Amino acid sequence: MGVPDAVLEKVGSLPDVSAMSKDDLAALCKQLYDKSCVVFGEKFDSEYQVKKRDMEIANLEQETSESHGTFKIPALKKVNKFKKMEGDE
């Protein structure tokens, strides 16, 4: 099971931790923590934008569905065809 390419692009390859001192490990942990905070922030922002757009789409769909039932057909008058033809002569 390997590391996906997208993760390697963001994080990079991990150094050999068995040869590191305690201070180097602490610095590496802090660096990885800072990178993860940035990534989670980007994820949160992306999810927020998606939810916001979904809500806007739902609101627009609701507005259009509400407007469909508001149109009323006006009452038409009955016109006598024979009166109109008599006027033409």
Task: Provide structural commentary.
This protein is mainly alpha-helical and 89 residues long. It is built from 3 helices and no strands. It has helices at 5-11, 22-68, 81-88. The longest helix is centred in the middle third of the chain and has 47 residues, at 22-68. The relative contact order is 0.05. The model has no long low-confidence stretch (mean pLDDT 82).
In short:
The protein is mostly helical. The chain contains three helices and no strands.
Shape: rod-shaped
> pLDDT below 50 for ≥5 consecutive residues: which ranges?
none
Q: Structural class of the helix and strand makeup?
A: mainly alpha
Helicity, in percent? Answer: 55-70%
Overall average pLDDT = 82
Strand content: under 5%
The description of the largest β-sheet is: none
Spell the H/E element sequence: HHH
Rounded Rg? 34 Å
Gap between N and C termini, in Å? Answer: 94 Å
For the secondary structure, the number of strands is 0
Q: Total number of helical segments?
A: 3
